[in-house]
């Protein structure tokens, strides 16, 4: 039995492990980033932290609750709700990640917001997320979330590429951050391709692999840059 | 012309001056911070609110000194700066 066949045949057992792994990575990232945010109150760090809070919740909801539904511990009636919640947190996470890169240009450097979850600038993200989820739900598709994330990660890749060119001599991780953005973009494009081919399992597996590598890259960057004394 | 300081850099500079001078008077801190009076007041109010700095009365004169939280910030500043620069935030 080749590894691909093994992974496909055992995917229902591997999915919660995958979700737990991503959730754990996000948890570690949030812990480390929150510590430096509380000292600095830097808005970009805040949005970056929020992105991984939302990613962690998204993956845990989708893959842990999804497994409970699959194995009969939760009613199948909840599957649509789980999918909606997953999409919402995933879309918001993408918005926060992009906002962490562009907030100075959008908000100005001296903004003082008490809450990054309840403020007028983030309110538009909530509206856009609900619109995307509604459109997907109404048309019984996933292409609106795919399109939104492809746009977000194209923009994020562009910004991180500019940051890399501006700071490559002094800051070594910028190239890995650009790589992480490109991998995320690829994953979303492949997701859309997989959907076109009736959720081709090989492509889904590749997307999962890319996601793990991407989150590990983020984790590496956070650990690498926050260990300096 | 000198590059405009980022918010974190200004906070670092103010805290470093206070750290080096122990109990420093507001006027001396204002000159050392290289800020306009209004901006200086805004930053000092923020630092007092966030408990990086405390204001004390000594012989009827107001002075500023660094709290433990302010000292922690200065220690962690390089880490914070490194993180922000490496992620382009």
List keywords for this structure.
heterodimer, A: 229 residues, mainly alpha, Rhopdopsin 7-helix transmembrane proteins, 0% strand, globular, B: 89 residues, alpha+beta, two-stranded antiparallel sheet, 4 helices, 13% strand
In a few lines, what is going on in this structure?
Chain A has 229 residues and is an all-alpha fold. Chain A is 82% helix and 0% strand.
CATH topology of chain A: Rhopdopsin 7-helix transmembrane proteins
* Low-confidence regions of chain B: none
Low-confidence stretches of chain A: none
The H-and-E topology of chain B, N to C, reads as: HHHEEH
Overall, the morphology of chain B is globular
Report the structural category of chain B.
alpha+beta
How does the overall form of chain A come out from the CA principal axes?
globular
CATH architecture of chain A: Up-down Bundle
**N- to C-terminal distance of chain A:** 49 Å
Characterize the quaternary organization of these chains. Answer: heterodimer
Order of helices and strands of chain A: HHHHHHHH
Overall pLDDT level of chain B: 88
Give me the Rg of chain A, rounded: 18 Å
The N- and C-terminal alpha carbons of chain B lie at a distance of 24 Å
Helical fraction of chain A: over 70%
CATH class of chain A: Mainly Alpha
Strand content of chain A: under 5%
Strand order of the largest sheet of chain B: 1-2
Could you give the topology of this structure?
The complex is a heterodimer of chains A (229) and B (89).
Chain A: H1 3-9, H2 11-40, H3 43-70, H4 79-107, H5 120-139, H6 143-167, H7 174-196, H8 201-226
Helix pairs in contact in A: 2-3, 2-8, 3-4, 4-5, 4-6, 5-6, 6-7, 7-8
Chain B: H1 7-21, H2 26-33, H3 37-49, E1 53-58, E2 61-66, H4 68-87
Antiparallel strand pairs in B: 1-2
Helix pairs in contact in B: 1-4
Structural account:
The complex is a heterodimer of chains A (about 230) and B (about 90). Chain A has about 230 residues and is mostly helical. In chain A, about 80% of the residues lie in helices and about 0% in strands. In chain A, helix 5 (about 120-140) packs across helix 6. Chain A starts with a helix and ends with a helix. Chain B is α+β, with helices and mostly antiparallel strands and about 90 residues long. Chain B is about 65% helix and about 15% strand. Chain B has a two-stranded antiparallel sheet. In chain B, a hairpin with a 2-residue loop joins strand 1 and strand 2. Chain B starts with 6 loop residues before the first helix and ends with a helix. The mean pLDDT of chain B is about 90. The interface between A and B is medium-sized, with 34 and 19 residues.
């Amino acid at each position: 039995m080749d590894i691909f066949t093994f992974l496909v045949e055992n995917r229902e057992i591997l999915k919660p492990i995958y979700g737990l792994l991503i959730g754990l990575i996000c948890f570690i990232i949030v812990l480390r980033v929150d510590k430096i945010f509380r000292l600095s109150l830097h808005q970009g760090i805040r949005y970056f932290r929020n992105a991984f809070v939302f990613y962690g919740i998204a993956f845990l909801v989708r893959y842990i609750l999804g497994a409970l539904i699959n194995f009969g511990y939760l009613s199948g009636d909840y599957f649509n709700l789980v999918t909606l919640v997953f999409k919402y947190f995933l879309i918001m996470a993408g918005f926060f990640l992009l906002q962490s890169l562009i907030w100075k240009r959008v908000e100005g450097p001296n903004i003082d917001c008490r809450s990054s979850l309840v403020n007028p600038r983030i309110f538009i993200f909530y509206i856009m997320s609900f619109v995307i989820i509604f459109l997907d739900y109404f048309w019984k598709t996933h292409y609106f979330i795919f399109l939104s994330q492809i746009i977000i990660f194209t923009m994020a890749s562009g910004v991180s590429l500019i940051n890399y060119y501006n700071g490559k001599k002094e800051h070594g991780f910028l190239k890995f951050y650009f790589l992480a953005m490109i991998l995320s973009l690829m994953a979303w494009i492949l997701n859309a391709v997989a959907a076109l081919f009736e959720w081709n399992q090989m492509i889904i597996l590749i997307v999962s692999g890319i996601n793990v590598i991407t989150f590990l890259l983020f984790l590496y960057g956070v650990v690498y840059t926050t260990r300096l004394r | 012309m000198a590059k405009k300081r980022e918010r974190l850099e200004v906070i670092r500079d103010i805290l470093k001056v206070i750290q080096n001078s122990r109990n420093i008077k507001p006027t001396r801190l204002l000159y050392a911070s290289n800020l306009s009076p209004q901006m200086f007041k805004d930053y000092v109010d923020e630092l007092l609110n966030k408990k990086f700095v405390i204001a004390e009365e000594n012989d009827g004169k107001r002075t500023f000194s660094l709290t433990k939280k302010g000292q922690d910030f200065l220690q962690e500043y390089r880490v914070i700066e490194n993180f922000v620069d490496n992620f382009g935030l």
